[in-house]
Write a structure and sequence with these properties.
globular, 17 strands, 4-stranded antiparallel β-sheet, 1 helix
């Protein structure tokens, strides 16, 4: 299976495609703007995808979201929304990442609306229900709260610069990357320039809604931030 998100925005070309002859021919099995697809390492028939514009391109009544297949991509079913009602327009969802841990097949999903992270969540029941993590954010000296993608433009380039990876050894650990650090420098975690913005999440920690959240640890820069014990590096390094 593969996803298509661009070309001439014709619904006949966009969506999730499936081949059963090693790519010789392909069949469009889910219409819409295919943003992401991921397989379950413990079940070769289980796939997840994120598709936008499903209302425009198909007979579905949803604006887009996360879908799952249990038959090798032949048919697809919409999962629950991580945050009910989080979509209000089809063009809001412009990037998404999925990752499945080899540890009990927990699926993680990050949905980005208008270039910024709207939710990072996980499901242990193949999308029937989702648990949403706290927002990844820091409170800067100018009073602004900055997330993984500081703003829509410039900086909030989540439609291009975003990554998500689950730990194969521990289903509770998740790694996320945004586009860049934000000023004023040095910022909350000690960044001195527009370097990478990378965090590790721990789902065993109860979310509080605080900024910064105890669920998230920065992987770069200062290791002496009092509010984030265990974050940073010994040499304040960053990519």
């Amino acid at each position: 299976v593969a996803h298509s998100t661009s070309d001439n925005m014709s619904c006949t070309n966009l969506g999730v495609w499936r081949s059963i002859n090693q790519g010789v021919t392909w069949t469009l099995v889910l219409r819409g703007s295919g943003l992401e697809i991921e397989g379950d390492p413990n079940d070769l028939n289980r796939f997840y995808s994120v598709v936008a514009f499903t209302m425009t391109c198909s007979s579905l009544t949803t604006l887009g979201g996360i879908f799952t297949s249990a038959d090798g991509g032949a048919t697809w079913t919409a999962t629950a929304e991580p945050r009910p009602g989080q979509f209000t327009a089809e063009d809001e969802l412009n990037n998404a990442k999925l990752t499945v841990s080899a540890d009990t097949s927990r699926v993680w999903a990050a949905l980005l609306l208008n270039g910024q992270v709207n939710s990072i969540s996980y499901s242990d029941d193949r999308g029937t229900s989702w648990t949403v993590m706290d927002e990844v954010a820091t409170l800067e000296s100018n009073g602004e709260q900055e997330g993984l993608n500081p703003r829509e433009k410039p900086g909030g380039q989540g439609s291009v610069h975003f990554s998500l990876l689950a730990s194969d050894a521990d289903r509770d650990i998740i790694y996320v990357g945004g586009d860049r650090q934000d000023f004023p420098f040095p910022n909350f975690i000690g960044a001195q320039d527009f370097s990478g913005r990378l965090f590790r999440g721990d789902a065993t920690i109860v979310g509080t809604g605080a900024v910064p959240s105890p669920q998230w640890f920065h992987l770069t820069h200062s290791n002496s931030v009092a509010e984030i014990i265990g974050g940073g590096t010994a040499s304040s390094s960053a990519p």
